[in-house]
Amino acid sequence: MRKRFWTKKVRILLIAAAVLAVAVTLGAALGQGQGLGFGQNLFSSLVTPLRSRIRAIDRQAVKIYDYIYRYETLAAENEALRQELARQNAAFDEAERYRRENQRLRELLELEQEHTDFSYAPASVIAFDTSVWESRLTVNKGTAHGLEEGMCAVTGTGQVVGVITEIGTNWAVISTIFDVGVQISSRVGPYTGVFQAFRSEDGSSRLQLRYLAADAALKTGQRVLTAGSEKYPGGLLLGTLESSGLDETGVSRYADLSTELSLDGLEQVFVITEHDTESAK
Questions:
Q1: Separation of alpha carbons 81 and 87, rounded Å
Q2: Cα 48 from Cα 54, distance rounded (Å)
Q3: Is 232 left (phi over 0), alpha (psi -120 to 50) or beta?
């Protein structure tokens, strides 16, 4: 833009200079032949409009130059601000990564302090697979890290996430407690039953503890825990009792549960690889 402008100005100035030179020559010639006063008068008459035009062009050129200068200055400042923002965003992302890592380590430490007889394998969630009937997630640990099919995964607060249903050398699929195919032996107070998810008519997941004794005395707010097995320990939190009633057969009782588990934003789980079977029940 600037290059085209200055080329045009140079041309205009050259033309104006040529016209001015012709006028000076003509004025001098006329001054010698007819008197200096007449030559000066003619010269001034020819030059004055040119001077006004040149001054107007010069003022316009200054305005355009100032505009170009301000534009380029603002563009440079904008680019500098963009680079500074990028640096700050990178620093923020790095700080957030460290914050999340510290949070995970604190959660793992709390888990290990609460259950000193458990061994955990932290695993990062790398994929989700959710449908009407299935609710599964894939983690980046597998048999090479001591994981086995049937092992239980929990959050940093000890909430059960699900059990491993498929596994490879460096990956494992965990079917969550929202998967209708998952059944976990559970207990609430002195009563035992089977924990399982069901799909409601609206497509939402409904958690229940089924096959309880018909005369089971249950209270809202009771904690529902795992009963324990060779693959996962007892006493792990599954949910909280909301309501109960007799099932369709009338010979056993069921309980509807609520859970604080949310898969949204879940980034890491802790797979229990070892536990004391007797003390965990």
A1: 10
A2: 10
A3: beta
Considering 7-11, 54-58, 116-120, 254-258, the range whose residues carry the highest mean pLDDT is 254-258
Q: Which residues on neighbouring strands pair with residue 123, listed in sequence order?
A: 269
Percent of the chain with pLDDT over 70: 69
Instruction: Return phi, psi of residue 22, to 5°.
Output: -65, -40
Is the model's pLDDT at 122 over the cut of 70?
yes
Helix, strand, coil in percent for the chain, rounding step 5? 40, 30, 25
Inter-residue contact 191 to 241 (CB < 8 Å): no
Per-residue pLDDT, 33:
47
Q: HEC profile for 199-267?
A: ECCCCCEEEEEEEEECCCCCCCCCEEEECCCCCCCCCCEEEEEEEEEECCCCCEEEEEEECCCCCCCCC
β-strands 152-154, 160-167 pairing: antiparallel
Q: Is the pLDDT of residue 151 over 80?
A: yes
CA angle 164, 169, 170 (to 5 degrees): 80
Torsion, Cα of 99, 102, 107, 109 (10° steps): -170
Q: Mean pLDDT score of the chain, rounded to an integer?
A: 80
CA angle at residue 236 from 105 to 217, to 5 degrees? 150
Other beta carbons within 10 angstroms of residue 157's beta carbon come to 12
